[in-house]
Design a protein that fits this description.
Elements: H1 6-12, E1 22-24, E2 30-32, H2 36-58, H3 63-99, H4 102-115
Antiparallel strand pairs: 1-2
Helix pairs in contact: 2-3, 3-4
Amino acid sequence: MVHDSPKQEETLKTPTAASAHTHIHAHTHAHAHAQTKAVLNRLSRAIGHLTAVRGMVEQGRDCSEVLIQLAAVRSAINGTCEVILKDHLEHCVVNAIKTGDAEALDELKHAVKLLLK
């Protein structure tokens, strides 16, 4: 994989099982995601499907076969979104409500709006 900058390379690294996926938002609450491994597994599956689809297109495979595989990619991504959203609602949003963090709730609304486009 070619990296344009060291900063871009950092963002492309995959967290290890030993590292917790923790981040801090502008609204200053930090949290770890309980489903990081499940999300990474689902993303790997989606990447595998998408790589296969690219190969199919390069080989000139039947359009119907490509579309069926693209549906599998979309399904894998939707499943990943579902896991992330569920985890976010159960942990981050509950914490935001408890602490009165309106910005976190606004971010969720924005993210869901983009997800549903």
